[in-house]
Amino acid sequence: MILLFIVFCPLLAALAILAGAPARRTALAASAFTLLAGVLAFLQFDQVHQGFSFVTTLPISAEWRLNFTLGLDGLSLIMVLLTAIVTLAAIWFTGNVARHENAFYACLLLIAAGAMGAFASLDLFFLYAFHELALIPTFLLIGIWGSGDRYAAAWKVTIYLAIGSFILLLGLILLYRSVPESVRSFDLRVLQAAASAGQIPADAQRQIYLLLLLGFGILISLFPFHTWAPEAYASAPAPAAMLHAGVLKKFGLYGLLRIAVPMLPEGARHWAWLLMALLLGNIIYVGLATIAQKRLDWILGYSSVMHMGYVFLGLASANLIGINGAALLMFAHGLSIALLFAIAGEVRERTGTLVLSELGGLGKVMPLASFAFGLGAFASIGLPGFANFSAEAMIFFGAFRNGADFDCFNIFQIATVLALWGVVISAVYMLRAYRATFMGTMPEKWIVLPDLRRHLRLPIGLLVAALLWFGFFPQTFVRVLSPTIRGYFPDTTSHPAGSGTPAENASP
Amino acid sequence: MIGAPILEIAVVVLGLVVLMVEAFAERIDKRSLAITAMIGLVTVLVASFFLAPPPPATASGFWSFYSADPLALFFKRFSLTTTILILVLMIDFAPKVRQSIHGATHQSGLGEFFALPLFTCAGLMWMASAVDFVMIFVSLEVVTMSFYVLVAFTRRNPASLEAGVKYLILSALSTGFLVYGITWIFGVTGQTNLARIAAVMRAGGVEQAPLLFGMALVLVALGFKIAAVPFQIWVPDVYQGAPTPVTAYLSVGSKAAGFVVLLRVLEPFFMLPQMQRLLVGVAVLTLIYGNFAALPQTNLKRLLAYSSIAHAGYLLIGVVSFAGGAVAFYLVSYLLMTILSFAVLILVANQTGDEIEDFNGLAQRAPFLSFAMLVAMASLAGIPFTAGFLGKFFIFDAAIRQHQTVLIVVGVITVACGFYYYLKVVRAMYWEESTRRESIPISGLSRTTMIALLAAIIILGVYPQPILSALRGPASESISATR
Questions:
Q1: Do A140 and B430 touch (CB under 8 A)?
Q2: pLDDT above 50: residue A261
Q3: Are B24 and B16 in contact (CB under 8 A)?
Q4: So where are chain B's domains?
Q5: Which residues of B362-385 are buried (b: 16+ CB within 10 A; e: fewer)?
Q6: From A152's CA, which of A128, B277, B399, B428 has a CA 20 to 30 Å away?
Q7: Chain A residues with CB inside 8 Å of B379's CB?
Q8: Does the beta carbon of B384 lie under 8 angstroms from any beta carbon of chain A?
Q9: pLDDT on residue A507
């Protein structure tokens, strides 16, 4: 019941707004209630239980064994919570919309509804379908209300995501077809049981994993399919960038965590070398590209692409601590990037520019904004005290440990060592961006700029509070998460699962 | 309880009645004829659910020409629904007909305009039941004859006349191919009934080469009907020139009937692997041509013409993968979204024109129309929670089951193209600013129809079960069963 409310509240609110309800008030109320319900679900959640709670099922087609099933386990619970927090912040943060105010809020809510539905669905079909619900709203948000070269950006993101999700769809159909007729189903639990019983043949696993890696990878902006992301986030209006970079992009990671990692271990082993190469592209190549950026929004867009590399590293490590870290980083990064995009959006609104060389010294007139941006930047770099730190540490441990059983360095250790340099890279560009925006000399004309306006303080405060809470008490979180993740590795205690021998990893 | 052929007879009689009333009652508002026709068709549609069970498939005499199996019944209802919707579009289009006919009174020509679709509908319904090459030929001609008139109906409009001539010549040519192909097949097997041809082939000892040749000729004719490459040359010009409701009728009714016949004819012939290879080639060409040629279009009618070719490609994937059920579901979703987009197009074109530019800023002028168009385009592009997505889903599922890798790869690429050209329309409606401000009047009838279509697109996109269960018959009995 509570889950149905969480999923359908934004959707119904969007429809109500399209039908003419007062836009801002309806959207705010809907997202506040959704967050409330999300917190309630978090408190009610049975933390020891490994399976799914709050399950509701509605049969759709017996022939296809297709049901509309909602349910939450630890992993989806934290994603739903993240969506609720970021949605409320993004909608609250939305200032005056110049034109089509109703459509703007409806689009935001539709993106949120799509993300919610995707995270809460226990059924592959709806998991996929809900994510696609966000495609047209994104296209409209960037195209109508965007800035800069918004037309090109809107086309690019839409075509990329359309191709990515179609490849993904093929992978999912193939997965559906690869289990034996008797247990064929779209239900994640049934598929998981079939996978655990070894009913998915190894070569099918390899094919499906590759399709899923490509499909989800395009959605997550995996190198070299990342070029849509910085452009889209730079052009999108700030609330849309917050929702998209903070929440929607996590859908791909969630899908990999939910489907590819637990169900296709053989596929993961087979393609580990490919994933390693690509994620190093994300961390090193995109990291260096970020340093070269001259605009604040592009830096943030590139940095969000870069940080996906760490999550991939956690996924690839395929052991308890690494996967836990990946899930935690998804959450933490969602909060920190939403905070950064919000401040950047506000700076653009006030000053009319985000070119670093024209900015400077804003810390004097906008102390609150500069403080919040600083927190977001530190979180993003991964300083202790933020959830990003614990998450990245867990990922590095997990990935490093993967090779610990072998005498020589294997590709996991090499990749980890290289990825560690990514932390330095991100420190360079984040601090540089902070200095260029908020420190130094300020152009005279901005002496009258107001600080964060009153209605912006609460959403920013909400994000900062969430960031700090989970930074200081990551345990709140890991407690919820780890039973689920432990369920992926029935034999974790005996030896680190996954990964295999170096020779296997290296050979295609 | 009534027999299935009564349905066609009823539709023909209805058409004659409408013509008679048209001829002798001069004072009435001619639009009431369309309403009468719709009421009559709805009655026939309802009656189709209370049919006496058909005699067994081995029957002789009349029933060896005519089948009333679930596939036939399904497509009879499909044709009836299409025709009812087309009549709604025709009422909206009536002012345009008046402008371009210049008859004695302001109503002249309208009566025939509303009566002709009834005869087309009867032809389409016969076609769904035809299980004999002779019958296929006759019903195909009934449909084509009425389309000759309809396509060129707005006769003072040169584009419409040009479309009529093109359709006439190429259609006659394709009929020639059909008859020639039937002759070859008859010459080799000595039969015209599809089931008996299959039996002869199964018995063996049939010469393959002339049979294949005959079949290839038949495929040419059907390829013309369904607008498959390389028999698509007529499509863009005819679609653009014909009166818009007729274009919608051509792209839905004519295509659906073509696919029913294709499903039936291929039943005996899919035993030949050469046929399958040939069809894969045609499907790949159709997908690539339809989608890529649609990319640069600036006229919405022409864009929809190319998209109709593109959808023929997806449907052919289903045919090649032996998925009769998937093809039928796709056709239903295609019916809903195509008619919806043409309905919006007619209303907008009455005020401005049918270029994509004419849709600029439609969201401000007519929020309902642009929302309807948005859903139609999303469904055509294949976005989840619309019927169009499930159609593509079933088609691609069938292709994956049959390991048609080439078709899948080409399909994914072309789907991405589709996103571009369909969203071009969305962009015009929502991104661009319009110079005009006046709103577009929508009649109660067309508003109700559009809401019904919208609801059907979304409901079938979430809950496909009604169509799936209606199809359970055809899915198991059509070509999928032969493998």
A1: yes
A2: yes
A3: no
A4: 271-483
A5: bbbbbbebbbbbbbbbbbbbbbbb
A6: A128
A7: none
A8: yes
A9: 35
Question: If you write DSSP's letter for every residue of B23-44 in order, what string do you get?
Answer: HH--SS-THHHHHHHHHHHHHH
Helix (H, G, I), strand (E, B) or coil at A149: coil
Contact B393 A169 (CB under 8 A): yes
Strand residue runs (E) in A148-304: none
Residue contact A173–B393, C-beta within 8 A: yes
Is A132's Cβ below 8 Å from some Cβ in B? yes
Where residue B56 falls among pLDDT bands split at 50, 70, 90? low
Q: Is residue A458 part of a domain?
A: yes
- Establish if A323 belongs to a structural domain: yes
Residue A496 is assigned to a structural domain of this protein: yes
Which range, of A49-63, A72-86, B25-39, B244-258, averages the lowest pLDDT? A49-63
Nearest one of B279, B296, B289 to B311, comparing CA atoms: B289
Tokens 């489907």 label which residue?
A: A259
The type of residue at B68 is: A
Q: State pTM to two decimals.
A: 0.90
Residue A375 · residue A464 · CB < 8 Å: yes
DSSP per-residue letters across A51-82: S-EEEEEEEEETTTTEEEEEEE-HHHHHHHHH
In chain A, the number of structural domains is 1
Q: Which of B314, B402, B419 to mutate to test the interface with A (most CBs of A within 10 A)?
A: B419
Residues 6+ apart with CB under 8 A from B115: B15, B18, B19, B22, B33, B37
What band does A407 get if pLDDT is binned at 50, 70 and 90?
low
Distances (CA, A) of B25 to A404, B30, B33, B94: 94, 9, 10, 18
Q: Give the chain B residue whose CA is nearest to the CA of A174.
A: B400
Instruction: Give a yes or no: residue A370 inside a domain.
Output: yes
Cross-strand pairs, B193 = B132
Question: Token match 């779209």: residue?
Answer: A186
Eight-class DSSP state of A109: H
Question: At B477, is the pLDDT very low, low, confident or very high (cuts 50, 70, 90)?
Answer: very low
Interface test with B, best of A170, A211, A218, A225 (most B CBs within 10 A): A170
Q: Find out whether B263 and B71 touch, Cβ atoms under 8 Å.
A: yes
pLDDT digits (tens, 9 = 90+) for A112-125: 999 999 999 988 88
Average pLDDT of the residues of chain B? 87
Whole domain around residue A282: which residue ranges?
A: 275-508
The SS3 assignment for B262 reads: helix
